[in-house]
Amino acid sequence: MTFQEQLITLRKQYGLSQEQLGSKLGVTRQTVSKWELGITTPEMDKLMLLADLFQISIDELVGRGAKDAEPEAGHARTGEEAPPVKEIHYIPYPWHYEYKSRRTLFGLPLIHVNIGRWIPGQKHCRAKGIIAVGNIASGILSLGGIASGIFSLGGISAGIFSFGGLSVGLLLALGGFSVGTVAVGGLALGIFAVGGGAFGVYALGGVAVAQKIAAGGAAQAVIAIGDAANGDIVFDINSPISPDVIRDAILEKFPGTWNIIVNIFSHTI
């Protein structure tokens, strides 16, 4: 008897569905189905779990032992009920949960959740949908260890609006290290950057370096505002200076600067 035939026989003798068996092994129903169809075969740790679950040896399970590997003699063979499935406590099952909505939009499920504990040598839990939640997630709204989408939140995130430890955003990026049109973070790089270390066309931070205007403890730009400032036009934050003076200097040097940018920097002192 082949392994897949053996697996089908044992599963049915123990009264388990593919989904129930998969739950006990920490795999999906689809994985069990592929084993039974002979498309894939279990890894050694899963073979060990199966052998313990059905109380037979691995050799019997894969068809190398007795000709007809069955549960312990005298049970299913004699018409008696199969022994209860043994609970295995000493082998940690990989935790996993997946949900995918049937309703779709643009060919994507409205909601796809695929999360679990990562096991070395196995695939990461990937989620792809309008709303995606997973170890790796991509969608309109995505949440995950690694996330990408229009709105993304994750340890590593990329999107139009992005929030994460490492964040890359087309419009807004917020994170420990962030890159975006507007970037806010411990270390920020963007057209408008705010952070402990900020670098951009306009920069505001502990250390601010900018192409046009910078403000911070240490600032370097054409117009520099700070405690230690270096630039063509310098304003010392320790000196009483009217916001109107800074405003006029910005508009004279860079006419057409957005009013919100002018207001932010003219009120930093």
Structural class: alpha/beta
Which runs of at least 5 residues are low in confidence (pLDDT < 50)? 66-78, 86-93
> Reading side by side through the largest sheet, how are the strands ordered?
1-4-5-6-7
Radius of gyration: 31 Å
Instruction: Give the mean pLDDT.
Output: 84
- Report the major sheet: 5 strands, mixed
**How large is the count of helical segments?**
7
- β-strand percent reads over 45%
- Ends: how far apart? 83 Å
Q: Quick one: how many beta strands?
A: 7
Protein described:
The protein is α/β, with parallel strands linked by helices and 269 residues long. Helix content is 23%, strand content 45%. The protein has helices at 3-13, 18-25, 29-37, 44-54, 58-61, 243-253, 259-266; strands at residues 96-100, 104-105, 108-109, 111-116, 126-220, 223-230, 233-236. Helix 6 (243-253) packs across helix 7 (259-266). It is rod-shaped and about 90 Å long. Residues 66-78 and 86-93 have low confidence and may be disordered.
Write the layout of secondary structure elements.
Layout: H1 3-13, H2 18-25, H3 29-37, H4 44-54, H5 58-61, E1 96-100, E2 104-105, E3 108-109, E4 111-116, E5 126-220, E6 223-230, E7 233-236, H6 243-253, H7 259-266
Parallel strand pairs: 4-5, 5-6, 6-7
Antiparallel strand pairs: 1-4, 2-3
What labels would you give this structure?
single chain; 269 residues; alpha/beta; two-stranded antiparallel sheet; 7 helices; 23% helix
